[in-house]
């Protein structure tokens, strides 16, 4: 494309060169630049893209988008903008034919619930013939491939390319998780959001290289509702009014009170043959009896937001109800169906807040014993280890401490830090370094009525040791234990293998 076409709608200054330069591709990674490319000089927390101006022009870059002057040959066009990240989103959107305008785009923001909600919405839309893509923490579904995700919200250049691919693959809609970092770093600049969803807010991502304060974190979350046409928000969240400040969208609400557009007026937990879930009656703009095959009151909120979007897009109630009854999200309170006698769940809870939340949720089902099995990542804050140990000691009946991603630390040292936290309580625990052996211990010592949560890894299928990621899928580890042990004779329960 010709440069002047790519710059439409942007404020900029030409430092040198001309707007008739033809651009054949674009990059923000200097190592990937090819002749004819446009290069975005991004000022990052570790590296400054302006420092690579000579390198990329040597590789054949014909246009640089900069925030400050650079020394490059006169043959290179240099365009100065106030924010290179924002410009990257806007320019890449035009370069790929503004793909978000050819899709119904649903963005989900909030501290918890984004992943589960995204799968709920995708399932509901798919049941009525919508060809729906997904961009999130676990994976990217572009209509043909499943691609493991590296960021909750990809960089804008990659994101626009993904949206373009979805259009080419014949999709008509996409559900995407929108992180606070994605909003703050303009990863979603140039995305035309039809719907924005706010799930909830609690303290997270606050610290160096993230957000300076809770207030800043909340402010960036609220930006989505200045970018979408329709906002669907959790009216019960204490930050609801703050999230709405400055909004420019139509507002639809969900919650547990009759004032919300979509609300649950009665609900109850259910437990049957090792399965945990929740049922409720939906009222407001739509009505009906809903059953969600994921435990916890938060499943009501996640499903209400999904129902609101699907309903506004014309999905019938039978399809909505069927999707909720069948929903299963990898690593998010994911049931591992091996026994009718007790329940095993895999969850991504990897800090004290999320561990406390899942244990509190599971406690409501009145298990005979609530057992937590987890470790902590290496080369991360020791405070997290102390806090998770203390939470589990207080809230679980028994804790099995094991290895997570030790990275460059020794697993024994990490486990000892968790023990330091748990010994502040009266909680009972054992330590088993090898994660598979920890699973074996949990299964062979399970009792009827127990609920066991395997926390921390969730959807991850690897264990990182000394800089190397080794394949490790928790579902496979459990299957191996069942194959290696005659557990039916040892425990006397009706075990079954699972897909």
Keywords:
single chain, about 500 residues, alpha/beta, Udp-n-acetylmuramoylalanyl-d-glutamate--2,6- Diaminopimelate Ligase, Chain: A, domain 1, UDP-N-acetylmuramoyl-L-alanine:D-glutamate ligase, Protein-Tyrosine Phosphatase, Chain A, 3 domains, 11-stranded mixed sheet, 6-stranded mixed sheet, 16 helices, globular
Secondary structure category: alpha/beta
Instruction: Identify the quaternary structure here.
Output: single chain
Biggest sheet, spatial arrangement of strands: 9-8-7-10-6-11-12-13-14-15-16
- Unreliably modeled segments: none
Count of helical regions: 16
What is the terminal separation in angstroms?
Answer: 48 Å
Q: Tell me roughly what share of residues is in helical segments.
A: 25-40%
- Tell me the name of the CATH class of the largest domain: Alpha Beta
From the alpha-carbon coordinates, what is the Rg to the nearest angstrom? 25 Å
CATH architecture of the largest domain: 3-Layer(aba) Sandwich
Named CATH topology of the largest domain: UDP-N-acetylmuramoyl-L-alanine:D-glutamate ligase
């Amino acid at each position: 494309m010709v440069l002047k076409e790519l710059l439409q709608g942007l404020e900029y200054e030409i430092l040198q060169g001309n707007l008739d330069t033809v651009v054949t591709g674009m990059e923000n990674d200097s190592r990937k630049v090819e002749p004819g490319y446009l290069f975005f000089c991004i000022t990052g927390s570790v590296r400054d893209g302006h420092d690579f101006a000579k390198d990329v022009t040597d590789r054949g870059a014909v246009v640089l988008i900069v925030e400050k002057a650079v020394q490059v040959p006169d043959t290179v066009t240099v365009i100065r903008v106030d924010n290179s990240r924002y410009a990257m989103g806007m320019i890449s959107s035009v370069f790929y034919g503004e793909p978000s305008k050819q899709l119904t785009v649903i963005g989900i923001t909030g501290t918890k619930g984004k992943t589960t909600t995204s799968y709920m919405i995708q399932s509901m839309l798919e049941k009525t013939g919508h060809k729906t893509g997904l961009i999130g923490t676990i994976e990217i579904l572009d209509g043909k491939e499943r691609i493991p995700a590296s960021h909750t919200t990809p960089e804008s250049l990659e994101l626009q390319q993904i949206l373009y691919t979805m259009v080419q693959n014949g999709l008509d809609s996409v559900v995407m998780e929108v992180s606070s970092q994605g909003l703050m770093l303009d990863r979603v600049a140039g995305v035309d959001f039809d719907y924005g969803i706010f799930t909830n807010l609690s303290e997270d991502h606050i610290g160096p290289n993230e957000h300076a304060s809770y207030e800043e974190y909340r402010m960036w979350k609220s930006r989505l509702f200045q970018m979408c046409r329709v906002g669907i928000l959790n009216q019960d969240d204490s930050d609801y009014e703050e999230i709405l400040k400055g909004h420019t969208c139509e507002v639809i609400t969900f919650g547990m009170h009759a004032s919300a557009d979509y609300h649950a007026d009665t609900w109850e937990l259910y437990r049957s043959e090792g399965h945990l879930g929740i049922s409720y009656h939906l009222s407001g703009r739509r009505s009906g009896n809903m059953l969600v095959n994921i435990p916890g009151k938060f499943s009501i909120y996640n499903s209400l937001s999904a129902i609101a979007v699907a309903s506004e897009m014309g999905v019938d109630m039978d399809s909505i109800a069927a999707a909720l009854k069948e929903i299963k999200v990898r690593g998010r309170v994911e049931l591992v169906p091996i026994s009718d006698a007790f329940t095993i769940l895999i969850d991504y809870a990897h800090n004290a807040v999320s561990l406390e939340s899942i244990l509190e949720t599971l406690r409501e089902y009145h298990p005979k014993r609530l057992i937590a099995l987890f470790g902590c990542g290496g080369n991360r804050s020791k405070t997290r280890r102390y806090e998770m140990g203390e939470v589990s000691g207080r809230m679980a009946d028994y804790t099995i401490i094991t290895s997570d991603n030790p990275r460059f630390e020794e697993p024994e040292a990490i486990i000892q830090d968790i023990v330091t936290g748990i010994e502040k309580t009266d909680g009972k625990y054992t330590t088993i370094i090898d994660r598979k052996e920890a699973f074996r211990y949990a299964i062979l010592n399970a009792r009827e009525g127990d609920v066991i949560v395997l926390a921390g890894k969730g959807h991850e299928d690897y264990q990182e040791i000394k800089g190397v990621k080794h394949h490790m899928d928790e579902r496979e580890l459990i299957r191996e234990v069942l194959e290696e042990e005659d557990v039916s004779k040892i425990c006397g329960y009706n075990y079954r293998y699972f897909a």
